[in-house]
Each structure stands twice: as structure tokens, then as C-alpha cells.
Amino acid sequence: MKKGAAFPRVILTVTMIYLLIPLLATLLYSVANSWQNTILPESWTLRWFQELLTDPRFTQSLWRTVWICLLSVGLSVVVMLPTIFIVVVYLPRLEKLLNILVLIPYAAPAVVMAVGLIKLYSSGPLPIAGTMWILVGVYFVAVLPYMYQGIRNSMRTVRTVDLIEAAELLGASKLTAFRRIIVPNVLPGIRVSVLLSFSILFGEFVLANLLVGGQFETIQIYLYHRLSESGHLASAVVICYFLVILVLSGILLALSGILGRDSTAAFKKGSEQ
């Protein structure tokens, strides 16, 4: 081991233990049949997981949440990636204005935002209050700061303007340069933004509860309702919740890695031709 490397390892280990202890305690409580005055549960059971996984409300709310989060994050990537690219390369004077606009969700409290949206969309030409579409819309706005910062920092790191100018000098069109040069280079930033946004939306409760409540039950609202019935069952929900995020994060990382390799291979093939 290199000299001086021990201290960072100790800090990292202590931090990991500190973060994992609550999750471990939740896992133990979710498989405990009785746990009163002992360090470990007095008896064990999988009854809470069995009850949870056979409940159709749980699977429905879980898939609804996954679907809404994926739709919101995907929509945000589709809109923000070309928008940031155009502003950075062709309209740099508007960059400060865009930065201010995407930071507005930080300043607006979730309760105020929800009340305003309910009043706006409860009637009129677009009555979507209480449906999943109002949740998709507000989630799209809520993740704008994370999406903007990740993609913008990646474009700044790879010097997007210089890359576009070099590609155009070599005969590539703007669209080709964007698709085959810029996107593969900023893919790490997109990946981080997507994972961060997805994790935040998957744990969001205030907006979901105020905007759709019991009309469109998501996993957050389901957890809130079951929490009052049994602490063991709520712990089982949290563990399943964590596993779903872990699996989806792994899938997203694998997909982004495959897309990055395909884009790089296509770029090398095009360069050789």
C-alpha cells in the first residue's frame, strides 16, 4: 500500500459503514418476526415480503413510479441536450438566461409549486390535475437543474465549440457532428444526470402526494399508506425500493456503456473511411 493511502481508505470505510448501518437495520427489521429488547431479532420471517409481493397495489404503484420517472427523465434529456448544445455553440449570450431559468425550481417550494399547478390545470383547456401527466410535467421541471449542470459541465470539459469547428472543417454537417462527436463525448455527463435525476424522482413524495394523491398511487404514496399499518411491512417496502433503484441504475449504466462503445466504434469507422 502506498504511503499516505491509508487515511483516505479509513475515511471511505467509515463513511460506507455510516451509510450502510440504516439500510442494514431496515433489512433486519423487514425479516424480523419479533424484535423488542435484543440486539438482533428474536425470530425471523419472510412473511412481510410475501405479503408485499402478493399485493397487486404494490406492483402497480411500483411500475407506475418507474414509468413516470423514466418518461420524465427521458423527456428532459431529449429537450435539454439539443437546447444546451445550441446555446453553448451558437447562442452563448443566452447561457446566463438559461442558467437562471433552470435554477428556478430550486427557489420554488414544492408545496407552492403544487398548489399553483392544481389551480392552473384543474379546469380550462387542459384539465390534467390528478392524472399522471401533471406529475410527468412537474417532474420534468424538477430535474432541469441536475440535467443542465451535468450536460453543461461535460460540454465545457470537451470544448464543444472547438470540436464542432474541427468537424465542420473536415466536412461533417452540424447534425453529424452533434450526433457522432458531441453526444459520445458528453455521454458520461448525461449518464450522471440521468441517474441523479431518476434517484431524486423515485424518492420524491411531496409533489406526488399533493398533485395526484390516492387518484394515481405511486410507490411513495403506497409506502406512506402502509407505514401506518406495520413497521415491518414498511421496512420490506424500503428494501424492495432500494433494490429496484439498484437494478435500474445498473441497467442504465450498462445501456450507457453499450451506447458509448457503439458511438465510439462508429466514429472510428467513419474516420477510417
Descriptive labels:
mainly alpha, globular, 12 helices, two-stranded antiparallel ribbon, 273 residues, 2 strands, 2% strand
* Chain-averaged pLDDT: 83
Question: Biggest sheet: strands side by side, in what order?
Answer: 1-2
Strand tally: 2
The parts where pLDDT drops under 50 for at least 5 residues are: none
Main pleated sheet: 2 strands, antiparallel
Alpha plus pi helix count: 12
Name the assembly state.
Answer: single chain
Order of helices and strands: HEEHHHHHHHHHHH
Helix content, binned percent:
over 70%
CA radius of gyration is 23 Å
Beta-strand fraction estimate: under 5%
Termini gap: 47 Å
Shape: globular
The SS-based structural class is: mainly alpha
Summarize this structure briefly:
The chain is an all-alpha fold.
Structure, explained:
A hairpin with an 8-residue loop joins strand 1 (32-34) and strand 2 (43-44). The protein has 12 helices and 2 strands. The mean pLDDT is 83. A two-stranded antiparallel ribbon has the order 1-2. The N and C termini lie far apart (47 Å). The protein is globular, with a radius of gyration of 23 Å. 78% of the residues lie in helices and 2% in strands. The longest helix is centred in the last third of the chain and has 42 residues, at 231-272. With 273 residues, it is mainly α. It has helices spanning 6-30, 47-53, 56-89, 95-107, 110-121, 132-142, 144-157, 160-169, 174-202, 206-211, 219-227, 231-272; strands spanning 32-34, 43-44.
